[in-house]
Amino acid sequence: MRVLLDACVLYPTVMRELLLGCAAKGLYEPRWSVRISEEWARAAARLGPEGEAIARGEIAVLASRFPRAEVAAAPDLERRLWLPDANDIHVLASAVAGHCDVIVTMNAKDFPRDLLAEEGLSRADPDNFLLGLYEASPGPVGEVVASVVAEATRLSGEAWTPRKLLRKARLNRFGKAVEAGG
Question: What's the whole-model pTM score?
Fold first, then answer.
């Protein structure tokens, strides 16, 4: 399964680490575009110059970890597509160009299911997407969660539990399932 990751799910660190940790386990193939990466870097710049520099470094690392993830849509493809927010057409075009099955985004209203279906795509929010991966492959996803929780604890000095960290990351259903399964 090929999955286009929107900038809004790549920028929050915990969400990104969970999603890409699952991709590294072979549970799906991630896709994004240069413009999506650029949106992530610009969002991180709001934290200051160091935020943008860190984001750009992470983007470079991800490009080496997932060398086939970056896709480019032809301009004529973007011109033939329509979405309620014209600023999101590049996301849809990248998903089509990347032969994706799903767009993972938190912007449900900007990606109507009927318009995506016309292109053979569906939409999932990160909470339900990760929940589905967990239900299908609890062992590997559980390993990813444990790793992300351990890293969050190491970096923050705070003793995070999976449920608490996933709730903070707005992954409530996923967090409940992990807690019940663990």
Answer: 0.94
